[in-house]
Amino acid sequence: MAREPAEPNAADVTPDLALELAQALVDEQFFLVYQPTIDLQTNAFAGVEALIRWRHPRHGVLSPDRFIEELEASGQIGPVGRWALSTACAQGAAWHDRGYRFNVSVNVSPRQFETPDFFRDVADALSTSRFDPSLLVLEFAQATLLGDRAQSTQRLEHLKTLGVRVAVDDFEPGTSALDELEELPIDIVKLDREFIAGLSTSSEATSLVHSLVKRSETRHLQVIASGIEDSEQRAQLKNEKVHVGQGYLFSKPHEAEEIDRFLEDFAIFSGKPL
Ligand code: C2E
Ligand code: CA
Asked: How many domains does the chain have?
């Protein structure tokens, strides 16, 4: 049975911020930036992750760490998440129409996932944009999916009837981590940024990556490493056969027009059509 979304914790909501956020959507102050992901084995462009930004009238551009919690607490994550999904799908379809075929990932917060409307939001974003569902990846934090595994499984299976793929974000590959995700219908695991940061100094972390990649083969999972900042990490992850990488080493997140230039440069650099 569907559980009611958690009530917002009133103490967490600053009235001004909640009001400003409501106005921000009306005034079109939100925008998306896109961070490329790169196939570590072939160097091909693999896709982008859509990340929200708020162009605040007084404080300038704000990153989501400054307002996602408030969006969640005030319940405004519903309409803002809907906007992010439809904007990312429209952009993905525009790239696709120009001959580029790559994944577009969109982050889904816990409260969005719990909302009964979420399935319809995804379906609407896909049908309005005509974006190929198999190129849309929905990213859920590990903690979001592990709360109530039976319910998560049911919801993910329902979402997957649309043809989309599911990624587990902020994945920390402790010994039991993949077991805990065993029954969930997931397609991609994204290694946590902090975990990648500690990779070069920890042989234990390296062996965890090694066994994760091995297990991912039998489960047909794709492994993505986030937060790659230097070429040593890239070489190490490539050596461990991690499939895809993301991080400042390749590119910071950029607005769509800049990604267009990145794609053009990338096609020239790699010497082959994408
Ligand atoms: P995330 O899903 O873990 O997204 C990756 C974050 O890591 C992004 O921060 C990105 O800019 C940053 N990053 C990427 N590569 C590197 C790197 O090499 N080094 C470092 N230090 N950082 C890197 P951002 O854009 O500030 O997003 C923060 C979080 O906000 C995201 O974490 C995601 O959980 C959430 N978020 C972003 N956009 C949305 C959205 O549209 N909807 C929802 N629900 N959440 C979102
Ligand atoms: Ca993410």
From this structure: 1
Check if 144 has its Cβ closer than 6 Å to any atom of ligand 1.
no
CATH code of the domain covering residue 248: 3.20.20.450
What DSSP element (H or E) covers 256? Answer: helix 256-270
CA distance 38 to 243: 9
Predicted confidence (pLDDT) at residue 4 exceeds the cutoff of 60? no
Q: What is the pTM of this model?
A: 0.93
Longest dimension (CA), the chain: 55
Tell me if 146 is assigned to some domain: yes
Which ligand has an atom closest to residue 170 CA? Answer: 1
Looking at residue 132, what DSSP letter applies?
A: -
Dihedral sign for Cα atoms in the order 165, 33, 64, 84 = negative
Cβ-contact 198, 229 below 8 angstroms: no
> Does the Cβ of 86 fall within 6 Å of ligand 1?
no
Q: CA 132, 223, 143: angle at the middle one, nearest 5?
A: 90
Residue 80 lies in a domain: yes
Residues 54-89: tens digit of each pLDDT? 999 999 999 999 999 999 999 999 999 999 999 999
Residue pointed to by tokens 């490329």 = 36
Q: pLDDT band at residue 12, thresholds of 50, 70 and 90?
A: very low
